[in-house]
């Protein structure tokens, strides 16, 4: 599962810029320029770390993910589980990038884990423009078009069961809390299977470098998003 997007070196996982970028575009449909291999502030997608946690430790009924630092390319990462079940993703110096708290039943069924991972990542990849653009327009703010920065802060979910479902995620509610030059975006979603609700969840994003909303600037950014998407899909 997802083995093309990382390299295992002993007890450490290493993710190259190319692997991270390929995951962002090819699996998540995420064309955030921060995931381009040549980006000045390149970072590994948080959703790739999320996927690797599920792959290595299974899917629990309740899970909370908190992203504490941005991961650069080729950073050796150790995925470890504490005695209390808490999972940490840290580098060789002990710097932590992701903390995961979980509870309830766990499944390691590869089909279930992969189905949930893929449906969540597909949902998460729609952050922009699908979810964030309407929020920013509503509040009259946007990220700096020259340096768009949207950072993954946290996410969590609760599942009613772990077996016999083919999950899909639907956005229920979204909000944007503006505080000076930054804003917190919250996306609440439902998890369904065959028309039946099987869980709920939410995620938080931080939008930095806010400026006044400019419809023309935003239209150009959205146009570039779809240009990049079309270019990638024709390769």
TrEMBL record:
It comes from the Bacteria. It holds the Pfam family DUF3581. This is DUF3581 domain-containing protein.
């Amino acid at each position: 599962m997802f083995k093309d997007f990382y390299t295992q070196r002993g007890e450490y996982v290493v993710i190259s810029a190319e692997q991270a970028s390929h995951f962002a575009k090819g699996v998540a449909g995420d064309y955030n320029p921060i995931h381009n291999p040549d980006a000045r502030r390149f970072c590994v997608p948080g959703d790739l770390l999320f996927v690797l946690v599920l792959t290595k430790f299974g899917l629990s009924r309740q899970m909370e993910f908190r992203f504490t630092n941005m991961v650069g390319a080729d950073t050796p990462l150790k995925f470890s589980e504490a005695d209390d079940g808490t999972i940490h993703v840290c580098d060789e110096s002990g710097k932590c990038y992701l903390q995961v708290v979980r509870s309830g039943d766990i499944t390691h069924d590869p089909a279930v884990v992969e189905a949930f991972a893929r449906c969540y990542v597909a949902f998460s990849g729609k952050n922009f423009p699908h979810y964030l653009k309407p929020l920013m327009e509503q509040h009259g703010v946007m990220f700096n078009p020259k340096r768009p920065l949207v950072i993954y802060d946290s996410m969590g979910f609760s599942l009613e069961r772990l077996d016999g479902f083919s999950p899909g995620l639907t956005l229920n509610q979204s909000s944007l809390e503006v505080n000076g030059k930054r804003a917190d975006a919250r996306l609440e979603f439902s998890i369904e299977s065959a028309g039946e609700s099987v869980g709920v969840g939410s995620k938080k994003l931080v939008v930095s470098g806010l400026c006044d909303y400019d419809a023309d600037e935003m239209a150009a950014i959205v146009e570039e998003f779809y240009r990049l998407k079309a270019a990638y899909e024709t390769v």
